[in-house]
Specification:
The chain is of the alpha+beta class and 360 residues long. It has two domains: 191 residues, Gcn5-related N-acetyltransferase (GNAT) (Aminopeptidase); 140 residues, Aminopeptidase, CATH 3.40.630. It has twelve helices and 13 strands. Strands 1, 2, 3, 4, 5, 6, 7, 8, 9, 10, 11, 12 and 13 form a 13-stranded mixed β-sheet that branches. A hairpin with a 2-residue loop joins strand 3 and strand 4. Helix 3 runs antiparallel to helix 9 and helix 4 packs across helix 5. The chain is globular and about 70 Å long. About 3% of the residues have low confidence.
Length: 360
């Protein structure tokens, strides 16, 4: 099994046929491990970050593609070079383009990175503890002392099963928005639209992307969003529309778009990438309720992935949640061992001490 590094955009673009072969050999179909997805990520991952793909090949051809980013930053005032998985906004779960021999691939990739000596900390976010990827990672790390589970998050989803009326009835807080929204919809004041194509050169794209992603003046509104995030969604919409992955839902109030949800659809699963609405818009829940109702009644979507977070808005829609974890692997160097001690021993101790002082 051999590993080579692709670190330039032209080289990455030329990987498309080999990547397609990998997807075919491994029977991989998720948008989030495709060359198209990482073509968006590569071009928009942010400034001052080195892109690289580890191309893993064996005697049968491509076995895995590992897109990574490397950058310099500081951690608790210590300078650090981090390597992490390349990804785009909105998808909280780590997925890997591995066609076969997952454990051997994971072992070889970790050994290869360890030999590079040009990083201090490897960060692997979004691992589901029960997933094959997490099992392979933990097995590969084995008894090594220089790794830790650094953070956990919650990813919520709706299992689309049973009657819509039962789902809505179990969420009593939804009743007022549903009742008033339906009345306004019948009167022609509210209107819900679904789009399977979104041209980023249209006014529809601009309207959707200028909606704030949170209530109130938001640093994530389009005015202040980093240019690379805007470019990501422009490119992603082109690829997703061409591949029939894209679904855009918008809520118009008196003709004006006041809420929107951008999704990727893969088989019977829908993934929410971005939700946005005007801060004063009280009918934003009606848009999601309308989306879910169409799923329950259409019998084509069986799982609705809401993204990550622990807020009430996520949890009250979910029928189930699952934890994700972030694994941190420290370089086996003097400086890596120092970072490991600081992050796993000294920082927790300092936080406990601060907590004791506040409690006292």
């Amino acid at each position: 099994m051999k590993i080579r590094i692709v670190s330039s955009l032209p080289e990455f673009d030329r990987l498309a046929p080999l990547w397609a072969r990998l997807m075919n050999d491994g029977r991989l179909s998720s948008p989030f491990v495709s060359h198209d997805w990482f073509a968006c990520c590569w071009r928009t991952v942010g400034p001052n970050r080195q892109r690289l793909v580890l191309v893993v090949e064996d005697g049968d051809g491509p076995a895995a593609m590992m897109p990574l980013v490397r950058w310099r930053t500081s951690l608790n005032r210590l300078p650090v070079t981090i390597i992490s998985l390349m990804d785009g906004p909105g998808h909280p779960v780590a997925e890997f383009a591995v066609a076969r021999n997952r454990q051997e691939v994971t072992d070889r990739v970790l050994a290869f990175l360890s030999a590079q000596r040009d990083w201090d900390l490897l960060v692997v976010p979004g691992l589901i503890p029960s997933s094959p990827a997490a099992h392979a990672m933990i097995e590969a790390l084995g008894d090594r002392p220089l790794w830790s589970v650094a953070a956990q998050d919650i990813a919520g989803h709706v299992t689309v099963a049973g009657p819509w009326q039962q789902y809505a009835r179990e969420r009593r807080w939804l009743a007022p928005a549903l009742t008033e929204g339906i009345q306004l919809e019948r009167a022609g004041t509210l209107h819900v639209e679904e789009h399977a194509q979104l041209n980023p050169d249209t006014e529809l794209f601009n309207e959707v992307m200028h909606l704030p992603v949170a209530a109130g003046p938001s640093p994530d509104s389009m005015v202040n969003t980093p240019p690379e995030t805007y470019r990501f969604f422009r490119r992603m919409c082109r690829h997703a529309s061409a591949n029939d992955w894209l679904r855009l839902w918008v809520l118009r109030h008196e003709g004006r778009i006041t809420a929107a949800e951008l999704q990727l659809r893969h088989g019977a699963t829908v993934y929410v990438l971005r939700t946005a609405h005007e801060p004063a818009m009280q009918f934003a829940p009606f848009l999601r309720a309308s989306i879910l109702r169409s799923f329950f009644e259409g019998n084509k979507v069986h799982r609705y992935e809401l993204g990550a977070g622990a807020g009430d808005d996520l949890l009250r829609w979910s029928t189930a949640t699952r934890e994700t974890m972030t694994v941190r692997v420290y370089a086996d160097t003097t400086y890596g061992r120092l970072l490991h001690k600081v992050q796993t021993q000294l920082v927790p101790l300092a936080r406990r001490y601060t907590g004791w002082r506040k409690a006292g």
